[in-house]
Structure formats: C-alpha cells, structure tokens
Write a structure and sequence with these properties.
Layout (H helix, E strand, L loop, with lengths): L1 E5 L3 E7 L13 E7 L1 H11 L4 E8 H13 L3 E7 L4 E8 L1 E5 L8 H11 L7 E5 L9 H13 L2 E5 L13 E4 L3 H7 L8 H14 L1 E7 L5 E4 L4 E4 L12 H14 L4 H16 L10 H5 L4 E3 L2
Parallel strand pairs: 1-4, 1-8, 2-6, 4-5, 8-9, 9-10, 10-11
Antiparallel strand pairs: 2-3, 6-7, 11-12, 12-13, 13-14
Bound molecules: 1-O-phosphono-beta-D-fructofuranose (F1X).
Length: about 300
C-alpha cells in the first residue's frame, strides 16, 4: 500500500489576473480552489495513474474538511488527524508574472503528533510512505528522525520531500529516496550559487554516502536527474507556456515513483515524470495526463551523464 503524509496540507487558491495593481480593486479573470499540500498532490497524481493510496496528515476546520471531502469524492482514501484551527489557504497568482503566498497553518499539539507516530507504526513491510512539504507549527525537525526510524524498523520505503536541511543528520538510519530541487540540494550543503550539473552529481552522491538509496533532483525547466549507486539518468523538460509552476515537483515525484511502482524502467518513468511535471506547469492545477504523450516526444533521456 502507498501512503502520503502531508503534515501541513493546504487549499491552493489559483487566481488569474491581467495585472496586479497596488491600492486598486483587482478583479480576477479566473479563480479555482483545490485540495493541495505536497503529499496531497502526490496522492492525487498516484490516483490519476490508477494507484490506490491513502492520504495522511493533520487537517483543521472547514478548509481541512474541504481537502478530506474532495479527496474522498475522487476516490482517494484518507486517514487524517483532526486538530483545532484552520488548515491554511495558499495563494498562487498569475498576473504577468507568478506570485506565491504560502501561509503557516494550524498549531499541532504534542498528543496529536504522538497519535500520528502511532498511526505510522501500523504501516506494513513493503509499504511506501511519502513525507512531503513543510512542518506545521508545533512540530520540529526531529519528527523526521522518528519517522525515518519507524520506516526502517517496519521495512517501509520512505520517500522524503523536504527543504529542512536538518534531515541530513538522520539519513544514516537509511532512507529509500529523497527529492530535493536543485536549490534545496545547494542549501543542504550551504552552497550559495546555482549548482552546475557536475556539482549536482557530487552533492547527490554525498546524499547516497550519507544513507539515501535513491536521489531525484528536480530542476524545473531543465528537467530532472536521478541517481542511485548504479545509475545516473538525466531527462530534459518539454517547452511550453507556463501558467503555474506550483505542484510540478510533486507531479514529478508522484509520477516517477508511481510509474516505477507500475513496472516502468528508471529511464521511462523519469521521462514520463518530466513530461507530466511540465504538463502541470502548463495548467492551473495538476495534470490530468492528457497532453503527456505529446509532451513526452520532446523529452531527451541522457544516461550516465
Ligand atoms: O509549505 P510547503 O508545504 O512547503 O508547500 C505547500 C505548497 O506550496 O506546496 C505545493 C506545491 O508543491 C502546494 O500545493 C502547496 O500550497
């Protein structure tokens, strides 16, 4: 079974405007509310690939219920823990350029954190757990060590998408896959400039030495690179008109793992994931995969770069 854990889910409010002017009433052309947060996005992608999965995490108030209801209406199982407060609404605005406003979300009490860890302890050998997105208030980075240890003890394949560099201290327990983007990878190692392909390889290989089995580096318009002990595979990204880049990284990750789970080779899973991530960038929400076969024609696969 596959599980996604979104500790701090969100409704994403997408707004399209011709322009955004200060001190004016800016009327939108289009607005859309979607159930999101990084793990929720992965759940939706897996579901669209026909892979059954359960969404876990903390939800609060009417916004939290919206996320739960939307997921369940679409056929995705949920087992969220309810907390007081209101699940955040993040705003993604397209007006000549992109604006992204990401809020804090509710405070998680200690007893709810313990409830979550007990829930994770019930996962079975061979299960997959995606842990994606930022930490809500009340939860500190040490939760990653607790989750990594639970997964190790229960033989659960842990897939991490986090920008918290403290997680590096816990990798020695063993992690199945980590997905930084190129900026996060640089930040993990306190590098202030954009990483070259050679540097991406150097730092990804350091993550392998530190205890990660597989590394997936998302690179936006430059595609993605996958590393494990025996393989290095890079793919390019298709070109198109970008509407909204939010959720592209989640699409890449969900599609890559999903396609691999369904038996695709690393190369094909990665190429399809890159086309899907671009498809998400070229639409308001996440891809429905319709234009992916066409976009896939533009993707180049480069092995052992
Ligand atoms: O604050 P986090 O958890 O890092 O990011 C949350 C978020 O910006 O990430 C997703 C896109 O990746 C959006 O759906 C969501 O609003």
């Amino acid at each position: 079974m596959l599980y996604t854990l979104t500790l701090n889910p969100a409704i994403d409010l997408f707004i399209d405007l011709n322009e955004l002017l200060p001190k004016k009433v800016n009327r939108s052309n289009y607005d859309d509310y979607q159930e999101n947060g990084k793990g929720v996005n992965v759940s939706r992608i897996l579901h669209r690939l026909g892979i059954e999965n359960t969404a876990l995490g903390f939800i609060a108030g009417f916004t939290g219920n919206f996320i739960k209801d939307k997921l369940e209406e679409s056929g995705i199982k949920t087992n969220f823990i309810e907390v007081d407060g209101i699940t955040r609404v993040n705003v993604f605005l397209n007006a000549e350029t992109e604006y992204k406003i990401v809020n804090k979300g509710p405070l998680i009490p200690e007893e709810k954190k313990i409830e979550l860890l007990n829930q994770l302890n019930l996962l079975q050998s061979g299960d997959y757990l995606f842990v994606c997105g930022s930490l809500p208030r009340g939860i500190d980075v040490s939760i990653y060590e607790e989750i990594i240890k639970i997964c190790k003890n229960n033989n659960v394949k842990l897939i991490l998408d986090t920008s918290s560099k403290e997680v590096l201290e816990y990798l020695h327990h063993g992690v199945y896959l980590i997905k930084p983007n190129d900026e996060e990878l640089a930040d993990f190692f306190n590098i202030k400039h954009s990483l070259s392909e050679e540097e991406i390889e150097i730092y990804a290989k350091k993550l392998i030495e530190m205890g990660c089995e597989k590394i997936l580096v998302s690179r936006g318009e430059y595609g993605a690179i996958y590393f494990d002990k025996n393989h290095t595979v890079a793919v390019t990204a298709p070109k198109g008109v970008v509407i909204n880049t939010a959720c592209s990284g989640d699409t890449l990750l969900g599609t890559f793992i999903g396609k691999s789970y369904l038996g695709e080779t690393i190369e094909m899973a990665l190429a399809y994931a890159s086309a899907s991530a671009s498809s998400t960038a070229f639409t308001e929400g996440i891809t429905n995969f319709e234009n992916v076969p066409e976009l896939l024609k533009q993707v180049k696969i480069i092995k052992n770069i």
